[in-house]
Amino acid sequence: MKASKRVIMLADCQSFYASVEKAEHPEYQDRPLVVAGDPERRSGIVLAACPKAKEKGVKTAERLGEAMAKCPELVVIKPRMQRYIDVSMKITDIYKSFTDLVEPYSIDEQFLDVTGSLHLYGCTPEELARMIQNYVQEATGVYTRFGIADSKILAKMACDNYGKKSPSGIYTLSKDHLDGTLWKLPVSDMFMAGSRMTRHFMAMGLPTIGSVARTPLAKLKQMMRRKFGRNSDIQAELYWRIANGIDDSPVRPGTHQVDPKSVGHMMTLPRDYGRLEEIKVVLLELTELVCQRCRGLGFMGHVVSVHCTGADFDRPSGFSRQMKMDDPSNVTNQVYRWACRLLEKHWDGLPVRQVGISLSQLTPDQEYQLSLFDMDREKWMALERTTDALKRKYGDAIIIRAVSMTEAGQALDRSTKIGGHYR
Amino acid sequence: MTTRKKLEGNGLWESSRMMLPEHKESIIRRQLEEGRKVKPTLDAQEMELIEHALAESFYDHRTITLRLYDEYEEVERTGVVTIVLTHRREIKLTTGPGEWEWIRIDDILSAGVS
């Protein structure tokens, strides 16, 4: 069989959270609408703005107050993260009815490899994209935009740079004509080029994607070494491949099923915590979450890491330290003891705004070393099996530790959220 | 640090994606569900073959390999049948010195004397 070119699509949902809310609140159909975090906490920012709100100058990630100032008639809706996950999965199912090769890249972006199923529809890739676009719109009210190419990287850049701006929402980027299209764009439009990297490229005399692509790889490596030192070769190759549209990565539906390298949780506190006892409460709650997730996945961790960020933006403080425990564990109290040691040793006494903990060097928890000094382990494990089962059935708030009822506790509040936003 | 992994396989996309842990868990759960299998109905001949192999193992202490039904993934067990409980439709398969497993006859999909 003749090796044919792959046909890859990157489908992106327009203003995803806002579109979901608009579909479910038809009364707001013609009004500018944003989904925004809780204004009373620090997460009071715009998470998604509908096209009507964007027309008024409202931007994603700006403070709610600023958005309201620009557009006083703005409809503000609290996020419902679980709902967005459900709709995203529903969209995945629609994509899967066109091809079994679907890979979610984020909540609102997914890759589709339609190479093998295109012939079933007897149409061009663009026509198929249109069909999928209509289907998703009908079923969920969400408008999707498509980038089409023979690799994931070009599909992504086709969508970001052209599909989102084209009236049809569909754009095919051909690898043979990059010099007339992608290569003309400023380097800031290149995938993975953030503002810092863009500045570096400009300083290197590479203002467009094409100028990066046309620099011989050996020369680009040399140029980047001069800026970032010897270890930048891989990064140079990465950018060079992106600019040239070289990417043979597969669309891999099972990509999320890999064993995790570490399990961690982090949270931004509603106010600055200045006392050790307060920080310890949150640390215990986070440890509980991390251990609970490890137990659910069937892992124990050997290394515990604790991370604290100071409250003062202008004078950054805090620490991030790790320690190897005597034995691998996923028992909350055991891990918490080690986490406390790290906290007590490394905390500088300054107010803290962010706390995180993670377990790494994971091993399956089917078998474990009996520890001579920890006779209670079996008992703890039985207790946690029971509390985990309760939480799975009734939600995380069904049983909590007494300290979580103190003023510093965040567990109850956190149990109502996903990714820091309301469920 | 940028590592070599970003340039291999699906590395570029696995290292750059933004997924909520809750979303990821739902995807994994869904895929597990999709892989769920119903137990096939065995025909009479296959059942006879299984019974034959079990009997042979039990009387002659021959090692057999059993393919067992599981909702998500079939499993294989190798050993010698040492006890047969006809009324409970279970066998005890001794898999090593001092190691055994009770297996429901209804879970056996195929059996072969090795």
From TrEMBL, chain B:
Pfam families named among the record's database cross-references: YolD
Protein name: YolD-like family protein
Species annotation: Paenibacillus campinasensis
